Amino acid sequence: MNAPAVEAIRRESLRIAGEKVHRDRVIEVTYPFTGEVIATVPKATIDDVRRALRIAREFKSSLTRHDRYRILMRAGELVAQRKDEISRTITLESGLSRKDSLYEVGRASDVLLFAANQALVDDGQIFSCDLTPHGKSRKVYTLKEPLLGAIVAITPFNHPLNQVIHKVAPAVATNNRIVLKPSEKTPLAALILADILYEAGLPPEMLSVVTGDPAEIADELLTSDDVDLVTFTGGVAIGKHIAARAVYKRQILELGGNDPLIVMEDADIEEAATLAAAGSYKNSGQRCTAIKRMLVHESVADQFTGLLLEKTLALKYGDPMNESMDMGTVIDEAAAKHFEAVVNEAIAQGARLLAGNVRVGALYSPTVLDRVDPEMRVVRQETFGPVSPIIRFGSIDEAIRISNGTAYGLSSAVCTNRLDYITRFVRELHVGTVNVREVPGYRLEMTPFGGIKDSGLGYKEGVLEAMKSFCNTKTYSLPW
Ligand code: NAD
After folding, report:
1. How far apart are CA 298 and CA 103, in angstroms?
2. CA-based nearest residue to 215, from 27, 54, 10
3. What is the pLDDT of residues 60-107, one digit of tens each?
4. 3-state secondary structure of 322
5. Whose CA is nearest to atom 26 of ligand 1?
6. What is the mean pLDDT of the chain?
7. 3-state secondary structure (DSSP) of residue 363
8. CA dist., res. 329 & res. 362, Å (int)
9. Could you tell me the sign of the dihedral formed by the alpha carbons of 281, 283, 288, 289, in that order?
10. pTM for the complete prediction?
11. Which pLDDT does position 3 carry in this prediction?
12. Cα–Cα distances in Å, from 7 out to 36, 37, 134, 166, 422?
């Protein structure tokens, strides 16, 4: 029998411009490993949302670049000081292992560091106008301004802190005002982050956090006249719903992925199998850029499969709070049951189960599935969990065709040293990223990131790109 995960249930409040607001109606947050309720968060009312949005629209920040730099750097220090506590909170609300949640807090510090430094960089351009016979002796200058209205940010469960900070930090760096609605499954890290930013000196009007039932409050967030931009990370279905509802608002949609790892016949197979295991199981396989399909050349498929199996069986999974575990649970029992069902369906259709597919509550074991057909549901759709489906192919043309053959286009990884192959993959894969001899998820928090097709509209995230999207560009010209 496990000891209770928490001593007392935490009763959380909304943060409306820094004010802590309680509501009688609440959402329970549970620890996926035991099913215990660990906290409650209020169900915000429509009036709560309207108030947060109105404050955000009306407030005009006078923070200098240096002020924003200092706030973001200070927030980074506070996150680092509270690393252990934040990591525990993430593990409790998501079931992610402590290894994964500690890694996530470290990434959040990087985001704050990059955003702080970018706040110092002048983003204007100068165009001389006497470049052609039609020109004049004038100059056009550009100026980046924060949006007039509020930014609404809606985030998923899989990285409770990192998804949030990728929206909040660039908003602070550009003097915008943001209203955040974190996932109702994992709202706690977002509330800690808000308190850290207030403590670091952020004017509270610049950030509100509303928790609640999306069926009740999402529409107000998407349609209010006080909102100029909606930035969303989550699944395709809700992303497309947002695209249809948030009419005449700037939309940044970072949606699902179905990323391949492609292993060619010349690859270092040990390296490929190491990347495969890391890319498939980190964060319990719940990353938009997790490896969700392994496309392996038939001449090396047996060797690759053997090595992947070894690495899968060596992975420790179980009690998320046990610091020696590589992998904790997935987000909830329903998700784990879904993986079990799609894997069973693939087995019934001829795939071979080599390891895993064992479920206890929300704990789902790392799973290797060989001889998968590209038409099976486990690889046609996004399987957002620790499943490694192996598809064998015979030529690069076939690999590219299979890779491009789903609705998604987020990222990809290719294992080869042949420049002719690399050139073709970079040119012909319909994705936002091609990583050679790295997992699809590899990036800096600052580099452009995002997908095409059903994975997104091609607008990128990452600190630099988010800062660009969150600004209006004004030009002015002067007669010299
Ligand atoms: P989800 O789409 O179920 O939920 C995301 C957010 O949308 C939550 O905050 C939820 O409350 C909110 N929401 C629910 N109904 C809504 C509505 N009608 N209007 C507006 N918002 C609403 O996603 P999830 O299950 O939390 O996260 C997993 C998904 O996120 C996966 O598909 C994954 O690939 C994707 N993801 C994408 C990226 C990326 O950068 N491309 C990163 C991480 C996760």
Report:
1. 35
2. 27
3. 999 999 999 999 999 999 999 999 999 999 999 999 999 999 999 999
4. coil
5. 156
6. 97
7. strand
8. 6
9. negative
10. 0.98
11. 79
12. 11, 11, 75, 32, 54
Could you read off the pLDDT of 198-249 as tens digits, one per residue? 999 999 999 999 999 999 999 999 999 999 999 999 999 999 999 999 999 9
Tell me whether residue 90 is exposed, middle or buried, using C-beta atoms within 10 angstroms of its C-beta: 0 to 12, 13 to 18, 19 or more.
buried
Q: Is the CB of 408 under 6 A from ligand 1?
A: no
Dihedral of the CA atoms 30, 32, 35, 40 (nearest 10)? Answer: 0
Least Cα distance to 171 among 59, 50, 256 occurs for: 59
From 288, 438, 445, 461, active-site residue: 288
The C-alpha atoms of residue 304 and residue 270 are separated, in whole angstroms, by 7
> Beta strands 10-11 and 37-42: pairing type?
parallel
- Mean of pLDDT values over 368-383: 98
Determine if ligand 1 sits within 6 Å of the CB of residue 186.
no
Q: How far is the CA of 471 from the CAs of 178, 208, 229, 448, in angstroms? A: 13, 19, 10, 16
CA of 406 to the centre of ligand 1 (A): 19
Listing DSSP states for 190-227 in one string gives: HHHHHHHHHHTT--GGGEEE--S-HHHHHHHHHH-TTE
12 is catalytic: no
CB 164 within 8 Å of CB 38: no
| pLDDT reading at 310 higher than 90 | yes
Alpha-carbon gap, residue 353 to 184, rounded angstroms:
34
Between CA 470 and CA 230 the distance in angstroms is 10
254 is catalytic: yes
Q: Is the CB of 361 under 6 A from ligand 1?
A: no
Q: Which residue in 93, 104, 254, 461 is the catalytic one?
A: 254
> Residue with structure tokens 């560009």?
473
The Cα–Cα gap between 358 and 476 comes to 63
Residues for the chain: how many in total? 480
Judge contact between 251 and 233, C-beta under 8 A.
Answer: no
Quote the pLDDT of residue 1: 52
Cβ atoms < 10 Å from Cβ of 348: 9
Banded pLDDT at 480 (limits 50, 70, 90): confident
